[in-house]
């Protein structure tokens, strides 16, 4: 497939859609607050679903509120190829996290429609419910139910801080659908901002995502002894915070020892009694460790447990470690990743392979379908923040990669109405004079324009040797023609 002749998305239309959606739940600092199943989420869903209907798609909602906008294929027996993400945000979220993946998928479908490209399999835009997990836990709820990771009834009964359930809120906003959760999926693509600084630092336009890091979350409780800050000598203290400070340093060193993919973070500390003149008697803190390989995660956890036990013994405190969450590393389908990489190369974009450090709906889709992701840079690597930003050119480039990767997987050809005017030559060659021969050449070209949807006819002489000029180029329903006087035989290449 020659990427130079494939269609391109409308970058201006994509950007306009992103900015229009960003106005729903907009914050004063330029970000977005659109928590799952709130009125703002309903308004965002209504807006995007309306765009999907305007594009000729059939919109359905399943029982967990996932939205699927379907463009039918020519083969009703084929499972759909899906692309999408989420449109719920953090409380102080940005304009692009999740939203880009949904609207890039919609732009792909709009482009297919504009070029009258018919695909054998249906193409669906997916909008997953409650990816962020801010208002309702767990994260990636909608995709998790769809993939069979979570039970539907258990998720519908989850509550927010005000006691409202997922099920009740879905009904309130009008998105408690009737479609069943889970069905065959032919493939899943997700475009996303990187949410980290690597692509920008490496000056690459696209990240070819090979997988997602696994993670393990722990809660650590360090118990010493509350005591008066004045009368208690330093050598007789059991200072939980002092012990914790050494543990935090150890967590950082563990990550540094497992590069390039090791990550470790202490993001939360709670000190008791948290008084200026009391030696802290208890500290609770979180540990987040991540790695691209299961063996790496195992090694990091073993080092963490050893380090915390050692420091506890040295400082005279007790240490309790409890599991909070575990996700195994996800390796995306090699064939799907290859299609993304080929699309990037065909478009001539700077790129690199990358492993996602953040979780995405693609993690759960990968359990049931061949899956791949496409990353584009975000400014300063900043995400989950109102100042989150991305460049229109990068967003357009990533969307073109998505389009070309989808077409490489699914195939496409011009609409039957355009091919009906000419008849294919079954032998793959056709003798033609100039005049009627031009129509015959186009017919031959159309006959071979599937499933990839792209062929060239090269003029050849009687001995089958190619001559310099291309007579006809078929570009998804758009013909570019040059009259030449030499050929009477055409060869499919």
Provide mean pLDDT, rounded: 86
**Rg value:** 28 Å
Question: How much strand content do the residues show?
Answer: 15-25%
* CATH-defined architecture of the largest domain: 3-Layer(aba) Sandwich
CATH class of the largest domain: Alpha Beta
Tell me the structural class: alpha+beta
Judging from the principal axes of the Cα atoms, what is the shape?
globular
Helix amount: 25-40%
Question: Span from first to last CA?
Answer: 11 Å
Q: What's the number of structural domains?
A: 3
Q: Please provide the count of β strands.
A: 22
Classify the fold: give the CATH topology of the largest domain: Aminopeptidase
The number of helical elements comes to 14
Query: How would you characterize the largest beta sheet?
Result: 9 strands, mixed
Instruction: Extract low-pLDDT stretches.
Output: 416-493
CATH superfamily of the largest domain: Zn peptidases
Write up this protein.
The chain is an alpha+beta fold and 493 residues long. It is built from 14 helices and 22 strands. The strands form five sheets. Strands 1, 2, 3, 5, 6, 7, 15, 16 and 17 form a nine-stranded mixed β-sheet that branches.
């Amino acid at each position: 497939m020659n990427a130079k002749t494939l269609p391109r998305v409308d970058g201006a239309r994509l950007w306009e859609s992103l900015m229009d959606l960003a106005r729903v739940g907009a914050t004063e600092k330029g970000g977005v607050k659109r928590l799952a199943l709130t009125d703002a989420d309903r308004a965002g869903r209504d807006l995007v679903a309306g765009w999907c209907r305007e594009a000729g798609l059939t919109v359905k909602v399943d029982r967990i509120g996932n939205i699927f906008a379907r463009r039918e294929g020519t083969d009703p027996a084929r499972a759909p190829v899906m692309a999408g993400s989420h449109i719920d945000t953090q409380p102080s979220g940005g304009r692009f996290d999740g939203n880009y993946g949904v609207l890039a998928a919609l732009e792909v479908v709009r482009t297919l429609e504009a070029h009258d490209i018919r695909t054998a399999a249906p193409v669906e835009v997916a909008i997953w419910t409650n990816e962020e997990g801010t208002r309702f836990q767990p994260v990636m709820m909608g995709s998790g139910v769809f993939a069979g990771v979570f039970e539907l009834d258990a998720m519908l009964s989850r509550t927010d801080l005000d006691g409202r359930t997922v099920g009740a809120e879905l009904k309130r906003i009008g998105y408690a659908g009737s479609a069943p959760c889970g069905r065959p999926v032919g493939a899943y693509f997700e475009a996303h901002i990187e949410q980290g600084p690597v692509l920008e630092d490496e000056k690459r336009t696209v990240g070819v995502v090979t997988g997602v890091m696994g993670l393990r979350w722990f809660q650590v409780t360090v118990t010493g002894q509350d005591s008066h800050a004045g009368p208690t000598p330093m050598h007789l203290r059991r200072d939980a915070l002092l012990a914790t400070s050494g543990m935090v340093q150890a967590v950082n060193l563990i990550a540094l020892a497992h590069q390039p993919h090791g990550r470790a973070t202490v993001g939360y500390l709670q000190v008791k009694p948290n008084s200026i003149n009391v030696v802290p008697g208890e500290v609770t803190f979180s540990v987040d460790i991540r790695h691209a390989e299961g063996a790496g995660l195992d090694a990091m956890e073993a080092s963490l447990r050893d380090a915390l036990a050692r420091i506890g013994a040295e400082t005279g405190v007790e240490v309790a470690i409890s599991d909070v969450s575990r996700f195994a590393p996800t390796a995306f389908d090699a064939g799907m990743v290859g299609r993304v990489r080929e699309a990037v190369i065909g478009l001539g974009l700077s790129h690199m392979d990358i492993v996602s450090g953040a979780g995405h709906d693609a993690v759960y889709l990968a359990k049931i379908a061949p899956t791949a992701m496409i990353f584009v840079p975000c400014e300063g690597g900043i995400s989950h923040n109102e100042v989150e930003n991305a460049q229109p050119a990068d967003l357009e480039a990533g969307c073109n990669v998505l389009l070309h990767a989808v077409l490489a997987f699914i195939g496409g050809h011009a609409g039957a109405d355009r091919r009906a005017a000419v008849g294919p030559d079954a032998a793959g060659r056709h003798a033609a004079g100039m005049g009627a021969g031009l129509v015959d050449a186009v017919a031959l070209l159309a006959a071979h324009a599937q499933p990839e949807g792209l062929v060239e006819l090269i003029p050849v002489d009687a001995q089958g040797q190619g001559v310099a000029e291309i007579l006809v180029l078929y570009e998804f329903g758009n013909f570019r023609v040059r009259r030449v006087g030499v050929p009477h035989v055409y060869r499919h290449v």
